[in-house]
Amino acid sequence: MRRTAILAAMIVALAAPLALAETPGSAARDFVDTRPVDPELPQPADSDARLDRERVRPEAAGELDLSLPMDWTGPEPLHDMPLALSVEDAVFLALRHNRSLTTEQLQPAIAGTFEAVERAVFDPVVFAEASTGRERAVQQFQELDVAPAERRTATERIDSGVRQRLRTGTDLELSVSSDRSDRSGVQEQYASRLGVTLTQALLRGGRIESNLASLRQAEIDTLASVYELRGFAEALVAEVEGTYWDYVLANERVRIFEEALDVAERQLEETRRRIAVGDRPETDETSAQAEVALRRQGLIDARSGRESSRLALLRLMNPPGASWDTALDPQDEPDVVDLPLGEVGEHAQLGRSLRPDLNEARLQIQRGELEVVRTRAGMLPRLDFFVTLGKTGFADSFGDSWRDLDGSGYDFRAGIQVETPLRRRAERAQHDRARFSREQAGEAVGNLRQLVDLDVRIAWLEVERTREQVDAVASTRQLQEEVLRAEQARFEVGETTAIVVAQAQRDLLESQLEEIDAAASWRRAVTELHRQSGTLLLRRGIRMSGDEEVVVR
Fold first, then answer.
1. What is the pLDDT of residue 53?
2. What is the per-residue pLDDT for 56?
3. Which of 80, 248, 312, 432 is the most buried (most CB within 10 A)?
4. Which residues on neighbouring strands pair with residue 151, listed in sequence order?
C-alpha cells in the first residue's frame, strides 16, 4: 500500500505541469517594446481651422476609431440630387466603404491565424486508441512422433491519455491503458496500467527563448501587418484629400473657363458692332473669334477633367446608394489658413518615430534576432533525458485488474537520448543566413531612417513653396486684372487692337487658374507633410493601432 502511494505521488508530481503550465502568449508579447509619441505641434489659434487635429466629420462627436464598426450618418445621394460633400465627409466615407481598405483590414486577422497555429504547439493533446488482434502460431517439434502444437491468442487493448509540450522543452504524457489477453491453454487475463512519461530536452530545444522564437515571430508578423495597415490607411486618407481638392480645383477651372468664354463672346459681339459702324477693321473679328474658340476648347478640357476627378473620388469613397452618375457638390474651398507648423526638425523626429514603414522595418530586426536565436539552438546536438513511471494491475477480470493497481506490479525506465549530425552543414547555413538577414534588416532601417528625413524635408519645402506661391499668384492675378481693364479702356478709345485685349484676357485667365491651383497645392502639400511624418491619422482624429514607436533592443 505504501509503495502504491509513493508511485501515485510521483505520477501526480510529474503530471501537475500539464494543468499548471503557463500560457506562453503574454511572455512572448513582452518581447516587442513600444513607446508612445507625442505628436503635438504648434497649432493655429483658430479652433475652427480644419488642419489642426481635423475632425473626420464636423458633426461627429469625439474621434473616429478605425478598429470599430462605423455607420454612415452623413448626407446620402437622393435620386438625381447631388451629394453635398465636405473633405471630412469624403475621408469618412472612404474609411468606411473603400474596398481596398476593407481588403487590407483582413490582413492582420490572417496574420493572427499563424500566431494561433504557433501557440497551438503548446496546447494539450488528448489521444485514445482501441485495437483488437488475433494470432495463430504452429509450433513444430524435433521429435517425429510429436504432432505440431497450435497456439491461438486474442487481444484487445484500449489506450488513452493526454500529452503536452511545455515552453521549457519538456514533453509530458499521462496515459491510462487496459489490455485483455486470451491465449489457448491459458486462463484469460486482464492488465490495467496508469503511467506518466517525462522527456526533458537538455541541449537542442531546452531553452525557453528558442522554443518561443516561432511564436514570437508570428506575433511580430501580426504587429507588422497592423503597421502596414496603418500606412495604407494614411496613404488612402492622403489620396482622398488630394482627389477632393483636385475635384474642387476642376470645378473652379470650369467656372473660370465659363466666365472667360462669356467675356470672349461679349468681346466678339462688341468687336462686330464696332466693325459695323466702321470704328474697327474687319481683321479684328478674326482675332475675337479665335479667342472664343480657345475659351471653348479650354472649357471642354476643364469639364472632362472635372468628370475624371468626380469618378476617381466616387471610387475612393464608394458611398452607399451612389452610382457612377452621382453628382458631387463640394462644400469646402481650398482656402489657405494661418498654420504654424513648427520646425522641420520636429516633423523629421516625428517621422523617425511614427512612420509605419520604419516601425515595420524595426520589427523585422527583432524578427531576425529571433531567427538567430532559433537557428543557434538548432546547431546544438539533441540530448534528452526521459523517465517513465507506471503502475500495473493484473487479474482475470477488468474490474479486478484496476483494483490490483495496489499490488506489486510497476514499471520504471529512465535514460538519455543523443542525436547529432556529423557535419551540421544545413544547420550552420541556416544560422549564417539568419545572421546575414538580421544585419541586412539593420542596414535597411538605417537607410529608411535617412529616407524618412529626406521625405519630410522635401515635403516641408513643398509646403513653404506653395505657401509663398499663393501670395505671389494672388498679386499676379490682381495686376493682370488691372492690365486687362487698362487694355479694354484703350480699346474703347481705339488706342489698341483686339489682339492685345485678347492676350490680356488670356494672361488673366492663366493667373486665375494658377491662383486656385496654388491654394489646392498648398492643401495637398500640408497633407503630404503630415503623411511623411506619420501623423496624418492622428491629426485627423482617426484612432487605430500602430501609433507608437517600436523600440529595438
1. 35
2. 35
3. 248
4. 137
